[in-house]
Amino acid sequence: MTQFCPHPESSAFSSLSVSPVLPKISPPPVPSSPPSFGGPVTLNVGGTLYSTTLETLTRFPDSMLGAMFRAGTPIPPNLNPQGGGHYFIDRDGKAFRHILNFLRLGRLDLPRGYGETALLRAEADFYQIQPLLDALRELETSRGSPVPTAALLHADVDASPRLVHFSARRGPHHYELSSVRVETFRANIFCTDAECLGAMRARFGVAGENRAEGGPHFRLEWAPCPAELPEVEYRRLGLQPLWTGEPGELREVVGTPGFLEEVLRVALEHGFRLDSVFPDPEDLLNSRSLRFVRH
């Protein structure tokens, strides 16, 4: 029986070669070897990026980071949209700043008034950095002995409306006198605990003002910019906003509730309890005065 074998150059096979079935596209292969010593390493910790070296990450070989980045341990990095590699760790990004500084310096160097030692201790325990856990234990012991526990914290805030007049340009030769109401806030914080007062100063930032350090008082004045008021007029009047948070994570305080919420958070972090609210105890965040005590 004669077998028929089509010629490779036949039209049927030519048409198939023109329109091949496309394979399913998979992500590019991920490198399986860690970066070399001496080069930069990028970590994404809870959405915050840090750049460091393998020498820093493996300073304590018995820690989790030391085991992760030990030479010869393959750890595939996640690829970011730009194509570069970084290592993702699903932990608190802000606290990792102090973890990394401890790895670099070999000592605990926290900012004045730092009130998140409990969170930092939990992170140090996760990364299994025993020297850092020991340093935190010593810090908490030293803070607890010489500093008196009894303290008083008082926060007052007052809002006053202000009618601002300005000229608004409506056309090439047409100007119109406009008015807008601006809420101006003045606050005074009094605290006998210097550490808590330092944490308050660190929590709030006032644009363009150098605040004097020292003393039990901390004063603030701010006025959110209304949408109807041009930015140039806002600056000309000498008004300024109030910000809270850390650099890179600042948010504007637009009224009394936002301000008192931050005061309450810092007070509770330093062991204070709420003693009195004026004028209405049922409306805490819209009050004019809060008093905290610590026995």
TrEMBL record:
Pfam short name (any one): KCTD11_21_C
Transmembrane region(s): none
Annotated pathway: Protein modification; protein ubiquitination
InterPro entries: BTB/POZ_dom, KCTD11/21_C, SKP1/BTB/POZ_sf, T1-type_BTB
Cross-referenced SUPFAM superfamilies: POZ domain
Presence of the UniProt keyword Transferase in the record: yes
UniProt entry keywords in alphabetical sequence: Cell cycle, Developmental protein, Growth regulation, Transferase, Ubl conjugation pathway
GO molecular function list: transferase activity
Gene Ontology terms: biological process: positive regulation of neuron differentiation; protein homooligomerization; protein ubiquitination
Domain BTB: 39-144
Entry annotated with the keyword Cell division: no
Oligomer and partners: Homopentamer. Interacts with KCTD6 and KCTD21; KCTD11 and KCTD6 or KCTD21 may associate in pentameric assemblies. Component of the BCR(KCTD11) E3 ubiquitin ligase complex, at least composed of CUL3 and KCTD11 and RBX1. Interacts (via BTB domain) with CUL3; initially a 4:4 stoichiometry has been reported, however, electron microscopy revealed pentameric states of the BTB domain.
PANTHER family (alphabetical): BTB_POZ DOMAIN-CONTAINING PROTEIN KCTD11, POTASSIUM CHANNEL TETRAMERIZATION DOMAIN-CONTAINING
Protein name listed in UniProt: BTB/POZ domain-containing protein KCTD11
Species this chain originates from: Ursus maritimus (Polar bear)
Source lineage: Eukaryota, Metazoa, Chordata, Craniata, Vertebrata
The encoding gene: KCTD11
